[in-house]
Specification:
The protein is an alpha+beta fold. The chain has 12 helices and 22 strands. β20 and β21 form a beta hairpin. α7 runs parallel beside α8. The two termini are 34 Å apart. The relative contact order is 0.12. Bound molecules: S-adenosylmethionine (SAM). S-adenosylmethionine (SAM) binds next to α5 and α8.
């Protein structure tokens, strides 16, 4: 592999006798992994691959983007070492958690797995097009308790001071841990790049700390090896912000951060390093902080977004004809869109929202049309009519085709393949009309 100028000499100097083992990993294929989705009803998954020792629900292996397991959200593909981060955050059901730099959603989906459908995850991405990808992955994974936002950290901090029990800052970084998987990631690297990234990381952390409640936990992570963005940022936050570095439990293979790379600050030994020459993964850095004090976050019940009488009638008619139960959560209408949001939702009128809770659907003239999200968020038992399709029909429907049906009537159905819900269809004249979102067709 041709490294950018200055990269090799830097790590030869830093790693000394360890450097040949580190560089040798770049001649090996990248490690891949996936996680099983515990939000889904347990279904036998014929995927295999050994368990990733430091991950909950993680396995080594590869799932293709067109496989039903991926499309139905039964699994999420995520690089193995990245699977340590949410484990360190250890979110719990009922908490209010912020994932500040979240797209495409690897850690958000892992956080949601720990929380079940309880509590609130605010998952934010500053870049608008990446925020849309995040929304689509959150929807595919069947997460119903997320507020997806598209803001810079300063605007969020102004809207939500001390609002979260736990915060993850999976920071934009120089991405040296991506070089093996994606050599294009090297194009931005210069010897000065880590210092420029570190400046942005400090700015993000200043805002993140403002949003953390006293006594709350903040986890900072990167997928880069550079001490400027790892040990030195951890030492800086420990010294300059009202945050204290606390130890991380490190399963075998996971090393400590190196105090010698941060002016011998002993607190840095509390951080964790996942090195590609010490375990099967691409590499990550993780630091866990606690904020001094003790306080609980304020709960907020939205008193706005109530449905009009016509909207209520149309939604009730839809539920009665198509579902077996009312989706849980607080119903909230934003213009013609209907959402079910967690009861602990924040006041979000001053932030840019991409998606709130579960998108239930759209009010049309005198009727309600369900959203595609219902197919991956609700269990098959929540639908009155489930249509099981073959692998060949699954591929045709994903492509946008109609499917003939022996069923009569005019209503919505859940389509499943291998018992995994993947789409909503509309039965009309013994045909299942294709409602698969155009942007997801394949
Ligand atoms: C390492 S990636 C996040 C990966 C994600 N957590 C996951 O697990 O899938 C960092 C993200 O930070 C975003 N970002 C870039 N500049 C930022 C800034 N100034 N503030 C907040 N986020 C930023 C990037 O757009 C990028 O999506």
């Amino acid at each position: 592999m041709d490294f950018p100028e200055g990269f090799k000499t830097k790590y030869q100097r830093l790693l000394g006798a360890e450097a040949p083992a580190f560089f040798a990993t770049f001649q090996q294929p990248a490690e891949t992994g996936y996680r099983i989705n515990p939000l889904k009803p347990a279904a036998p998954l014929a995927l295999g691959g050994p368990a990733i020792p430091w991950s909950t629900w993680g396995h080594y292996g590869k799932v293709a983007g067109n496989d039903i397991e991926h499309v139905s959200g039964f699994v999420y593909s995520q690089e193995p070492s990245a699977q340590f981060v949410a484990t360190v955050l250890a979110p719990e059901p009922g908490e209010r958690v912020l994932d500040l730099c979240a797209a495409p959603g690897g850690k958000t989906t892992h956080i949601a797995s720990f929380m079940g459908a309880s509590g609130l995850i605010v998952t934010n991405e500053i870049n608008r097009s990446r925020a849309k990808i995040l929304a689509s992955n959150v929807e595919r994974f069947g997460i119903t308790n997320a507020l997806i936002t598209n803001n810079d950290p300063d605007s969020l901090a102004a809207a939500w001071p001390e609002a979260f029990d736990k915060i993850l800052v999976d920071a934009p970084c120089s991405g040296e841990g991506m070089f093996r998987k994606d050599p294009d990631a090297m194009q931005y690297w210069t010897p000065d790049y880590p210092a420029a990234c570190a400046q942005r990381q400090r700015e993000i952390l200043v805002m993140a700390e403002k949003m953390l409640r006293p006594g709350g936990v903040l986890v900072y992570s990167t997928c880069t090896f550079s001490p400027e963005e790892d040990e030195q940022i951890a030492a800086w936050a420990n010294a300059e912000l009202p945050l204290t570095l606390v130890p991380i439990q490190k399963p075998a293979g996971i090393a400590s951060g190196r105090p010698k790379w941060a002016d011998n600050d002993p607190a840095v030994a509390n951080t964790a390093r996942l090195w590609p020459h010490q375990l099967r993964g691409e590499g990550h850095f993780v630091a866990r902080f606690v904020k001094a004090g003790q306080a609980s976050v304020k709960r907020y019940d939205p008193q706005w977004g109530r449905l009009s009488a016509t909207q209520r009638r149309d939604f009730d008619t839809f539920v009665k004809a198509n579902l077996t139960q009312m989706p849980s959560g607080h119903l909230l209408a934003v213009k013609d869109q209907l959402f079910a949001v967690p009861e602990t939702a924040l006041d979000w009128r001053h932030v840019r929202i991409v998606r709130a809770g579960l998108h239930l659907g759209t009010f049309k003239k005198n009727r309600f049309e369900p959203s595609h999200s219902l197919a991956t968020a609700l269990p098959p038992a929540a639908f009155q009519q489930v249509v099981k399709v073959s692998q060949a029909e699954y591929l045709r429907y994903r492509h946008g085709e109609l499917l003939p049906s022996a069923l009569s009537g005019k209503h919505y159905v859940l389509l499943t393949c291998e018992d995994k819900g993947f789409a909503i269809g509309k039965l009309v004249n013994q045909t299942i009309k294709n409602l698969y979102p155009k942007g997801l067709r394949h």
